[in-house]
Specification:
Shape: elongated
Structural class: alpha/beta
Helix content: 25-40%
CATH class of the largest domain: Alpha Beta
Strand content: 25-35%
Distance between the termini: 68 Å
Length: 429
């Protein structure tokens, strides 16, 4: 038998609830009924900037034990009394995070509580814990799904604050037009995610090196003969800094002082993201190259989940906007036989959704010969949310490691995908 004491804002016991776990389920009854509804553990919530709301006293107690954070629930199970939100306002609570149970009742409970909170001008987030089976709650997430405090912190931090529809409405006359700053005109926007993807061996890392080299001296980008030089930061998952330097030395014009690298191993954990953000601030980089992207996700992140991908990357992208920095991620293609390039990106479709620009790298097989002299290496702009898609460009990587942008070509993504599919995905090494 478990006893839950309900106290008012002065710490006086105003209700006692009893829970008995039986062979057939649970028995819950009030030994001392509440005369007026108050949230559980109300007396602990005064002047708390952020509190957590769960469904049921058992979850609240386990949550407090697990995190040390302040938490509460409605006294009526999944039925929310509007006075609960009024009490939280009275206690000067500023923000609430609702961790909902994974069932229809939990969904209803979260939405109703959130609506009451917003009416009281209390900021609110609703969180669906990952990996829960139907009808499971926070207790199962900790004890059965091996949830951890660092992961919970990341989920809470990256969850979006919800608003009432009326709070979101904007008159177009009051909206300021946002100017897009470009790292590479109309291809790579600053403050957003760009993905460079293709089969192994097609020169993706050479292209990012070409971008950094051009950026370091302020010249050398196709259709952009001169611009203000910028600094670049490389986060390397497979190559070393020495390999990157060797690649950069193949360019005639490069200022090595404006190019930084990190190859010591880092992941998109909460601490890892904070480290990356600090690197961006310290270097004042305007281009961050993450190569390859999938290397940096921690093992507990399901890269096939759009929600988890967005949760992991959202904080980094906020920093990119604040620092006016382009995030350029290098990725491979999956083994699907689809001819649509955007569906071949390795990992979740959430990645292509997050990206504002995507460029496909591949080889056009015009004629198959032993020396493959007729193959053309091409970069194709396959997605652009902020401008019109730009012309495809041919490039050349010479045997001595030199790189050359060559000319505009009429090829599209289907030309690249067709060549790879027909010829066994044999990209050049």
């Amino acid at each position: 038998m478990i006893t839950y004491e309900y106290k008012d804002h002065l710490g006086r016991i105003v209700g006692i609830k009893i829970r008995k776990d039986t062979e057939t389920g649970k028995e819950i009854y009030w030994k001392k009924p509440l005369k007026k509804a108050v949230p559980y553990k109300l007396d602990t919530l005064r002047n708390q900037k952020t509190i957590f709301i769960l469904e049921g006293e058992k979850c609240v107690d386990r949550f407090i034990e697990f995190t040390g954070w302040k938490a509460t629930c409605s006294p009526n199970g999944s039925n929310v009394d509007p006075s609960c939100a009024k009490w939280l306002k009275e206690m000067n609570v500023e923000r609430a995070v609702i961790l909902k149970d994974n069932d229809n009742a939990g969904e209803k409970y979260a939405k109703e509580f959130a609506s009451d909170l917003l009416k009281e001008k209390i900021s609110c987030k609703i969180i669906s814990l990952p990996d829960l089976f139907p009808s499971e709650d926070f207790v199962e997430w900790v004890e059965e799904r091996r949830g951890t405090l660092p992961r919970l912190k990341g989920i809470v931090k990256n969850a979006k604050v919800i608003e009432m529809p009326s709070q979101k409405l904007k008159r177009m006359s009051e909206v300021e037009t946002e100017k897009v700053n470009w790292l590479w005109d109309y291809r790579i926007p600053r403050g957003y995610l760009t993905i460079l993807f293709g089969f192994p061996g097609c020169g993706k890392s050479f292209i990012t090196s070409a971008l950094a080299s051009a950026g370091s001296v302020g010249t050398g980008l196709p259709f952009q003969p001169s611009f203000k030089p910028f600094k670049s930061l490389f986060l390397l998952g497979e190559d070393s800094s020495s390999i990157l330097k060797e690649r950069l030395e193949g360019f005639e014009n490069v200022n090595m002082d404006r190019i930084y690298s990190y190859d010591e191993g880092i992941h998109f954990t909460e601490d890892g993201i904070e480290e990356i953000k600090q690197m961006i601030r310290d270097t004042r980089a305007k281009m961050v190259v993450i190569d390859p992207l999938n290397h940096f996700f921690p093992s507990y992140v399901n890269t096939g989940s759009d929600n988890e991908i967005r949760e992991v990357l959202s904080d980094l992208l906020v920093e990119a906007r604040e620092q006016d920095c382009a995030i350029v991620c290098v990725s491979h293609l999956n083994k699907s036989q689809s001819s649509e390039a955007i569906y071949r990106l390795s990992g979740s479709s959430g990645l292509s959704g997050l990206a504002r620009s995507m460029m496909l790298v591949g080889v056009v097989k015009e004629e198959i010969d032993l020396d493959r002299t007729s193959d053309r290496s091409v970069i194709v702009h396959v997605k652009s949310n902020l401008a019109l898609r730009q012309a495809s460009l041919e490039y050349k990587i010479y045997s001595d490691g030199n790189f050359e942008w060559r000319k505009q070509v009429p090829y599209n993504e289907h030309d690249l995908m067709k060549g790879e599919l027909e010829n066994g995905n044999n990209a050049r090494k």
